[in-house]
Amino acid sequence: MKMYSNFLMAGVLGLTLAFSTAPFAESMAATNNVDAVPGQPVDLTYAAEKAIPAVVHIRYVQNSKTKTVKVQSSPFDDFFNDFFGNPYGDGGTQERKIQTPKREATGSGVIISPDGYIVTNNHVVDGADELTVTLNDNREFSAKIVGTDKTTDLALIKVDAKNLPTLPIGDSEKLKVGEWVIAVGNPFNFNSTVTAGIVSAKARSLYANGVESFIQTDAAINPGNSGGALVNAQGELVGINAMLYSQTGSYSGYGFAIPTAIMTKVVDDLKKYGSVQRAVLSIQGGDVINYINEQKDNGKDVDLGTNEGVYISKVEDDGAGAEAGLEKGDVIVAVDGRNVTKMAELQEILASKRPGDKVSITYLHNKTKHTKTVTLKNAQGNTEIVKPADLDVLGGNFREITDSQKKQLNINYGVEVIKVSKGALQSAGVARGFIIQKINDTPVKTIDELQKLVKNASTSKDPVLYIQGVWPTGKKAYFAVPLNDD
Which residues are catalytic, by number? Predict the structure, then answer.
């Protein structure tokens, strides 16, 4: 469970992480308690009965590993090095191998299809070597990670099973402030725990994720609820519990869930493509009211023609926004006829779109309203499907350098290219024997780190690896290695 407080943003709390379950296919909502009578209590027993079987307990294991770390040398080490030389040549630091402890945690997940797909938070499964899913009926399954999306803090995992209980997916956009909801998960390892509250706000930004439009609720959410279900009174999944607000590490009145409007599309992309197909306008900006207040703090009065909307502070060249004629200083007030009062609402709408989709943007330019149709693009400036690449795209084989290579070349880390065939490395001029030390200014110490950097770069705005390294002769070299097919 992530925590948001006055002192800490997006910290993972304790050793418990939580998950919950829900299905993709829409089904008929129950009607036995849809219409609440004003002034009368709402019966949430139906919602709880629907949700509990579909929320699972997840056990996370990260095995002990050997890591190489830099440590500051002691005065005795310096004395020794003065006479015999520092074999690491790193000016007062040395490399030492340490054994990391085995880590275990628990959390929650939501079954979204009878054949074993489960949605949860990215921070719940990130770095796991083993995932064990326990159903409400105590059946256990090993789970594999299908895909993750750090930008929205969502992940999709799968177990090998059939005919599993699921939750119908509700429309989070129809939620109203004041509406009753329940949170279902496994806080503090208490299995199948249900808490109740209301929706206390929508489209809340905490600046913890790249894309967010949280449902805020006062249903108690604690460490262990991450990935669990937020369910409406009709027994429909409307959100994935993700964060809590706290100054103590435990519930203090507010929890936050990722709406199904974002979840459904992210999970669908992970199933189909292995990565999220994110549509962007290629603009920068923020809430209009924040911009106005900032200008007031600087002694300036601003009249944008509205106090609500998204203020555009920058329009990137060749992006969808630029092609539509958006300019710095414009204010987006609606998308496809839906009012946009703040950035979180715009993010939620765009998160449901894919590159190539067309949307109608209504904006104010010099306080005059305009509406234009925009074709959304991906971060790379086109409408094609973007799939994460693996090491095969490089056309090479690799191994981590040996201690003798470190000593000979006076380096601390690196990954050696031991074979080059047809691929990106060969096209860029990288040959056998070259030692990769950094990619895009990030140190490369292991093959796993190399794989992650290739994957991240392949789906980024600039799909290029800027490689720094050294030849066996000791000569340093730099290469730009494009990952696209152009």
Answer: 123, 153, 226
